[in-house]
Write a sequence for this structure.
């Protein structure tokens, strides 16, 4: 598959910089395309997790998804930069440059390369529902604290999912979310708050529908 090939695109695949001790959210996604639901998660987690920075990691391709209608990485990065225009947000496609396929590779790399940063993995509740299908998901939970943001359709299923049950003893109260980034993993929080019903697949389906024949 082409997405496995290491790929360097100037201005797209660089790793952001940050200072020691910073609390950095890692928000991985396909962003195919980016939408206001993503922006909501970014805004809420920046505030609730008390983050100094949030890195949006535009994946070369989710290993559990079909990539037939995946837009080029550079286009997804550019669109994400346009929509998530915030001084603390950096958007990068750096995983492609390293040939990373799985999130555990990204997280292992970052936590080893920058051991003095406080990284937090961020994902929507739908991803917690399927988290137990991710490659080395228990290792991910052992490497970084994780924040899960509520999402319509998954709000009830996520907290009783296989991964949530397996990691239950390390869940912290959302009132303590500001501490999450500085806690030793495993630690995770389930954040409730404003919700958006938007999804990239619905946007793609609408675009298909209005395409001229
Ligand atoms: N409306 C939303 N509310 C909360 N989290 C969301 C929302 N949309 C996406 N996310 C989260 O943002 C991250 C990136 O999501 P992704 O780019 O796959 O968008 P998506 O809308 O879920 O796409 P698709 O419909 O193609 O699966 C994931 O962790 C996902 O759970
Ligand atoms: O590592 C895995 O096995 C794995 C399985 C599914 C999804 N992910 C990652 O989860 C993030 C969210 O993916 P997505 O497609 O829901 O936006 C993105 O960074 C993916 O690469 C990772």
């Amino acid at each position: 598959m082409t997405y496995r090939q290491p790929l360097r695109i100037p201005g797209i695949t660089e790793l952001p910089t940050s200072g020691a001790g910073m609390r950095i959210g890692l928000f991985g996604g396909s962003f195919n395309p980016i939408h206001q639901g993503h922006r909501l998660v970014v805004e809420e987690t920046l505030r609730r997790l008390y983050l100094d920075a949030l890195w949006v990691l535009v994946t070369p391709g989710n290993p559990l998804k079909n990539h037939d209608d995946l837009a080029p990485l550079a286009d997804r990065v550019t669109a994400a930069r346009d929509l998530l225009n915030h001084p603390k947000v950096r958007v990068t496609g750096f995983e492609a440059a390293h040939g990373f396929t799985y999130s555990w590779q990204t997280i292992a790399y970052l936590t080893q390369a920058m051991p003095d940063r406080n990284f937090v993995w961020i994902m929507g509740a739908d991803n917690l529902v399927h988290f137990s299908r991710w490659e080395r998901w228990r290792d991910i939970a052992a490497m970084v604290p994780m924040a899960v943001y509520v999402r319509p359709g998954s709000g009830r299923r996520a907290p009783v999912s296989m991964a949530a049950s397996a990691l239950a003893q390390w869940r912290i109260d959302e009132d303590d979310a500001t501490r999450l980034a500085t806690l030793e993993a495993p630690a995770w929080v389930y954040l409730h708050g404003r919700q958006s019903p938007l999804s990239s697949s619905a946007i793609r389906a609408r675009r298909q529908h209005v395409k001229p024949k």
About this structure: The chain has a mean pLDDT of 95. The chain has one domain: 23-209. The longest strand covers residues 23-29. Residues 8 and 186 are 33 Å apart (CA to CA).
